[in-house]
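Give me the fold.
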Amino acid sequence: MIYKHLPLCELHRHLDGSIRLQTILELADEHGIPLPADTVEGLAPHVHVDESAPGLMAFIERFDHMTAVLVDADACRRVAYENVVDARNEGIDYIELRYSPWFMAESHGLHPAEVMEACADGVRAGERDTGIKANIIGILSRHYGVETCMKELNAILAHRDHIVAVDLAGDEANFPAHLFIEHFRRVRDAGLHVTIHAGEADGPESVWSAIRDLGAERIGHGFRSIEDSALVDYLARHQIGLECCPTSNLHISAVANYASHPIRQLADRGVRFCLNTDDPGISNIDIAHEYEVAAPAVGLDADQIREAQRAAIDMAFISEEERQRLRGA
């Protein structure tokens, strides 16, 4: 069970991977966008993944029906707002929502800065109406290439006051972290935190590069760190936390099954981690699923699950004052 006496935080959830099926249907109807079905039940198999997909990029294709309805700023604002409401309904006390403005803008030729602003407006309105704290992480989608990512970074930094961190996501194997050194120099110069997708679709060298080249303070996924004992020791010694998403890892075929997920081995060696949903609108899960189903299935015991919940508070990109307030919640 989720330990209700502790605050519940989620640090790795993609806003654009968390769109309600009903919202997709309504926006598609409003804007005349064709869909493969006109009911929630009919649409679900085209959006949800309920068994392993053949790799990360195939999983990313599941976003197509979600991004297809992001036709304007109002649609982006609505989706962002509903993300916060849904987090509240899951019992979450604090959430970090991340999104790539270029990825969200692409289908309908929006300006990435417009997407950044609209989503930020939606998140802030959600905070006001729900009372939960939500922070924003901007994503650079590495598969667009170095030059486009620099333009995307410009859009993100134009709304620097709305965000706490920048992430690098997408095709990890073919667009390695070292290509983006200059991007993350600018991120750090702007006083923002850094979290990087690494050690998911590529091996431990990807994690090393995220840390050494980009200044990663946290690692998205990172479970392939287990392949390098020196890296595991480094993560534990420097308390660089992993944003662990077991069900998502299963759905992209990065692990064969829950039991083979290495997070238990990493935890046994002192690596700090938290539990997250990643793209709950695609995996068709909520945060309770990761605590109550996925975590025991990967072999975590009750103490380790409880520690993951505590670690989420410690790993969050918030002030010490906010951290203490959460702990006292």
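The CA atoms of residues 2 and 291 lie 6 Å apart.
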